[in-house]
Design a protein that fits this description.
three-stranded mixed sheet, mainly alpha, globular, MgtE N-terminal fold
Length: 459
């Protein structure tokens, strides 16, 4: 039976509960903090910490149990994590992070002070240290950086009873994954991937059945596969877990659906913040120096674009003085081109993220959007020109506003399609730079087309 989606009242209740918990923790005395956060999930505790001023975070985090402290660190955004790790006691920090899985510890490693990292590594047994070394070899934005090296394997000639007993023995020794185990990867003697067998089949079929008789074909994820493609693979194949393999087919680890959900969440935050020149790791309570370093360059870039638009307008001062109607209508032309372009920009960025836009179809897509731009430009030009004619009663002005708006909508949609493709080819994030470039272009060209036509035809 499908789950019922949350209603607005449910969301409001959750928000109220979160606010109440934040208020309780904020008011609690040091000796009351442990009780106040006793039943709080690590993800909730991370949310609370990020909503607090920095000088309060260490006290609240230190009041949690060691296991909760470690998991909470994995949920924090990088900037908050770095600040908290820098202020925490190194031994206290090492105690929290040492029990984490190797992939989680590798993610935290760049943000830990050297003393805390050394203390944490000293607590690891040789096997876990070797697994950590495997994870360190791969960057975060590929499958190898996302994987858990604790992949459970089986041999095709093993019986299901023997496989179950081996799993029990691994659990008794504290080996193997501690959660989200839904399948075993079947490998040959050289540890190359042969297939996959669902855990439900292992416990359902006769105990004397061979693994090879119940396994299914499986395709491993290449270790250097970009995370975006990992997400697409899980979505398209409805996977709960998948093996990660080397170039020669050796099983290196596994990725589970919770890893993918974390990656999706990070990607969603990035896509929301990137157009403003920010990223998902920023701290709400970042100091002024940090804020200036992150936001200042983008504000300066936007200021340069604004001055460029003002420079264009300045070249038509006489025109504006003699025909004020053009100044009144300038925002209409610029905004229509900008909004139409932003729609195409968002569409193409989404297509690039889902691998739906590539060399085979990008120019056909550009022609399609250019045709849409011409049609939409003409359609709204008629509407706006009609309003301008009713407002001012000037036939020449009506033609000018219609022509300028048609041109700017066409330009906005065309460039909104072209910019992401070009920026991606230049290894520049389209979500980060595309919106700002498009806004400057449509403003400048919108003003130029309206004022230029006005100067030619009315003066």
């Amino acid at each position: 039976m499908p789950s019922t989606p949350p209603t607005p009242s449910d969301t409001a209740d959750q928000d109220a509960a979160k606010d109440a918990l934040l208020e309780t923790v904020a008011r609690a005395r040091p000796d009351q903090l442990a009780d106040a956060i006793a039943d709080v999930h690590p993800a909730q505790l991370a949310d609370l910490l990020e909503a607090m001023p920095p000088d309060r975070r260490v006290h609240v985090w230190s009041a949690a149990d060691a296991e909760v402290r470690g998991e909470t660190l994995t949920e924090l955004h990088d900037e908050v994590l770095a600040g908290l790790a820098g202020a925490a006691d190194p031994e206290h920090l090492a105690e929290a992070v040492a029990p984490l899985q190797p992939d989680e510890l590798a993610d935290l490693e760049p943000h830990l002070p050297p003393a805390a990292l050394d203390a944490a590594l000293a607590r690891l047994d040789p096997q876990k240290r070797r697994r950590l070394e495997h994870v360190r070899r791969h960057p975060e934005d590929v499958a190898g950086g996302l994987m858990d090296v604790d992949a459970v394997t089986a041999h095709p000639r093993d019986t299901l009873a023997g496989t179950i007993e081996r799993l029990r023995e691994q659990r008794r020794r504290g080996e193997g994954p501690s959660e989200h185990l839904n399948s075993l990867f079947v490998v040959d003697d050289d540890h190359r991937l042969l297939g996959v067998v669902a855990l439900a089949d292992v416990v359902s079929y006769p105990p004397d059945a061979r693994v090879e008789s119940v396994m299914s074909p499986a395709t491993g994820l290449p270790v250097d596969l970009p995370v975006r493609e990992v997400i697409a693979t899980f979505r398209d194949r409805d996977l709960l877990s998948a093996p990660v393999v080397s170039d020669d087919g050796l099983v290196l680890g596994r990725i589970t659906v919770d890893d993918v959900m974390d990656a999706i969440s990070e990607e969603a935050e990035r896509s929301i913040l990137a157009p403003a020149g920010l990223d998902e790791d920023k701290d709400l309570f970042a100091p002024l120096r940090t804020t200036l370093a992150h936001r200042g360059p983008w504000l300066l870039t936007n200021l340069a674009g604004a001055f460029l638009a003002a420079w264009v307008i300045g070249h038509f001062e006489d025109t504006i003085e003699r025909l004020v109607a053009l100044a009144v209508l300038m925002p209409v032309v610029a905004s229509m081109g900008g909004v139409a372009g932003q729609q195409s920009l968002a569409l193409i960025i989404r297509g690039l993220a889902l691998n739906q836009v590539g060399r085979s179809n990008r120019w056909r897509l550009l022609r399609h959007e250019m045709a849409n731009g011409a049609a939409l430009g003409l359609l709204f030009a008629v509407l706006v020109a009609g309003v301008a004619h009713a407002w001012y009663g000037m036939a020449d002005l009506t033609l000018i506003i219609g022509a300028a708006l048609t041109a700017n909508v066409f330009i906005g949609i065309s460039l909104g399609t072209l910019y992401p493709i070009v920026l991606k080819r230049l290894n520049i994030d389209p979500a980060l730079a595309g919106g700002m470039a498009l806004t400057v272009t449509t403003d400048v060209l919108g003003f130029f087309s309206l004022l230029g036509l006005g100067t030619l035809l009315l003066l």
